[in-house]
Design goal:
CATH superfamily of the largest domain: Dihydrodipicolinate Reductase, domain 2
CATH class of the largest domain: Alpha Beta
Number of strands: 14
Order of helices and strands: EHEHEHEHEHEHEHHEEEEEEEHH
Distance between the termini: 34 Å
Oligomer: single chain
Largest sheet: 8 strands, mixed
Number of helices: 10
Helix content: 25-40%
Mean pLDDT: 95
Strand order of the largest sheet: 8-9-10-7-11-12-13-14
CATH architecture of the largest domain: 2-Layer Sandwich
Length: 345
């Protein structure tokens, strides 16, 4: 690994997330040499090399893996192909950073986890909200019992949708390629945050709906969560509403954390959260809690590869989040019935 002191990096998939995060992230990281990419759409090859230099471009990812002797690979393809591409890269001896969701089925997630274990390589899932300053501060405070025992979390992530305007094409709206809409795309980030911050989820009630867009997947979704530790949670995600609150709130017996990505992270103390009294004190902890994320993801990933950071956004975390999302879809199809996720131990 790491020829001449540099890790040779490749990217499978050349769409928006590759061009806005992974390719520039490897390019600027001094521990890497961005060597190659694989992208089946020929017109994107010139676009990518114009932005990121004279890279080796391949139409078939298998050719890239066979010829380039890579150390690390990012998977930036539509959801349906995550398992196929990740397993191939792991079998080629590469550490793999895979975009979320880990896969579209638990069976495929298990294949990826098994391939990482068999090849003794690292598999990280791109849960970038964990790398934002606001969520990181909240995680530290929860670990230190700063708001007592948390008993409720509310998450809302919403924007106008990935296409048009950001994604290179409309694959997000193709059920065969995406396997789900807003509940799987944005919801997987929200689910992972809930698992990371409050622990295992015992059951979920979900409702996915297509309210506004003329697409075959959901553009809005709701989830109600029951945590194994006794807390409750609520998630709202959407591809049709740019304005409004974007972030999360955590209520504890000794205070409340409100992380509004646009307006700041605040702590409300005074035991008001648990209804014990009406005395409240507000403190701004971070005026810009949305810093980090994509901007630092590849640096963090290389720290993980080199052993300088513990791998927590691993295959198991990806599988657990996927299990909750799939349970929410199952619940929605059954009229909101309570469903226990298959993967939570």
């Amino acid at each position: 690994m790491a020829k001449n002191g540099l890790y040779r990096a490749g990217v499978i998939g050349g769409g928006a997330i590759a061009q806005e995060c992974h390719l520039p992230g490897y390019k600027k990281n001094k521990r890497c040499k961005l060597a190659a990419f694989a992208e089946p759409v020929a017109d994107r090859h010139g676009e990518i090399t114009a932005r990121f230099g004279n890279l080796a471009g391949y139409a078939d990812y298998r050719d890239m893996l066979a010829r380039e002797d890579l150390d690390v690979v990012s998977i930036c393809t539509p959801n349906r192909f995550h398992a196929e591409h990740a397993v191939a890269a792991l079998d080629a001896g590469c550490h793999v950073l895979c975009e979320k969701p880990i896969a579209t089925t638990l069976k495929d997630a298990d294949r990826m986890i098994a391939a990482a274990r068999a090849n003794r390589r690292k598999l990280m899932i791109g849960f970038t909200h964990r790398l934002l300053t606001g969520p990181m501060r909240c995680k530290s405070m929860l670990d230190n019992k700063a708001i007592g025992k948390p008993f409720m979390i509310r998450v809302r992530f919403a924007h106008g949708g990935p296409y048009p305007g950001w994604a290179k094409n409309s694959w997000f709206y193709n059920k065969k390629l995406s396997a789900g809409g807003a509940m799987l795309d944005m919801g997987i980030h929200a689910i992972d945050l809930c698992l990371w911050l409050l622990g295992p989820i015992a059951a979920v009630n979900g409702k996915a709906a297509t309210l506004i867009k003329d697409i075959e997947v959901d553009d809005n979704a709701l989830m109600m969560l029951e945590f194994k530790g006794g807390a409750l949670g609520y998630i709202e995600v959407g591809w049709t509403s740019k304005p409004g609150f974007n972030g999360f709130e955590i209520y504890g017996t000794e205070g409340t954390l409100i992380c509004d990505y646009a307006r700041g992270l605040q702590l409300c103390s005074g035991k008001a959260s648990a209804g014990k009294d009406s005395v409240t004190e507000w403190k701004v902890l971070d005026k810009k809690p949305g810093r980090g994320g994509w901007a630092i993801e590849l640096d963090y990933w290389m720290d993980v590869v080199m052993g300088n950071e513990k791998l927590t956004m691993n295959g198991a975390a990806g599988r657990d989040a996927l299990a909750v999302a799939l349970a929410a879809y199952k619940s929605s199809a059954a009229g909101g019935k309570r469903v226990e996720p298959a993967s939570i131990k």
